[in-house]
Write a structure and sequence with these properties.
Layout: H1 2-21, E1 35-52, E2 62-65, E3 67-81, E4 84-88, E5 91-101, H2 108-111, E6 112-129, E7 136-149, E8 170-183, E9 188-198, E10 217-231
Antiparallel strand pairs: 1-3, 1-10, 2-5, 3-4, 3-5, 4-6, 5-6, 6-7, 7-8, 8-9, 9-10
């Protein structure tokens, strides 16, 4: 993910330099319509924030190993003001995380769980932009999202005693980010870096009390950073 962030920085600096040199405004009327649409692609690196609860497992330690996932979706943009836009960006966000329960001895099938997550990501965001600077326009963005996890296994009666780590299906997150709009000849390209943070506890506790997998956990929530490339 560090390489992706570095490439993002190089891309932004390169496009910014080009945009600042440009004297001819491209897409001069792009921001005038009340509505416009687009799509986005991206990559994410999500893991879990875990806080521990008092339990019979005082030495509980859970290690989260993240992997690179993908984001894809659509954009609907409503202009509220010259510098303020309301955006709805429905899409899919997929990622896999590996949980290693360091306090549980035994083989990987006992102390390791691979947790896949495919979310229907429904964020409602407020975008605050500066005035246009030639062919570029920096902005900050933030808001809330509802996230439906298709891979949660929440309704599965099997739990960790049968090898299934379960999470909640219905989740809420807040999202913040910074980016730059670049006005090109035929479309607007808007790269941004964003963070997502779970509001609710996503863990589905095991059926039996004193589970060595879930009893030590007070809160488990998604957190992550993703590269968001919008084409409008």
């Amino acid at each position: 993910m560090l390489k992706k962030l570095l490439l993002f920085g190089i891309l932004v600096v390169s496009l910014s330099s080009q945009a600042q040199r440009e004297k001819i405004l491209k897409l001069p009327s792009f921001d005038k319509p009340l509505f416009h649409y687009g799509f986005y692609l991206g990559a994410n690196n999500n893991d879990y924030k875990i806080s521990y609860a008092p339990s019979d497992f005082d030495d509980a330690e859970i290690e989260v190993e993240s992997s690179i996932g993908f984001n894809v979706g659509l954009i609907a943009d409503l202009r509220l003001h010259n510098n303020i836009n309301l955006r709805f960006e429905p899409g899919l966000m997929s990622n896999t995380k590996t949980l290693r329960f360091k306090h549980i001895p035994g083989a990987d099938n006992i102390n390791t769980r691979e947790v896949g997550a495919t979310y229907l990501h429904l964020p409602l965001l407020l975008k605050l932009s500066t005035n246009r600077l030639n062919n570029m326009r920096p902005y900050v963005i933030g808001g809330l999202s509802y996230d439906h996890n298709f891979s949660s296994n929440e309704r599965n009666s099997d739990d960790n005693f049968a090898g299934e780590f379960r999470t909640t299906t219905n989740n809420f997150m807040y999202e913040v980010g910074i980016g730059v709009d670049f006005y090109l000849s035929y479309f607007k390209f808007s790269p941004s870096i964003r963070g997502v943070f779970a509001i609710n506890n996503e863990i589905k506790y095991d059926n039996k009390p004193s589970s060595q997998w879930t009893d030590p956990i007070n809160f488990l929530g998604t957190r992550g950073v993703f590269l968001h490339l919008a084409f409008e």
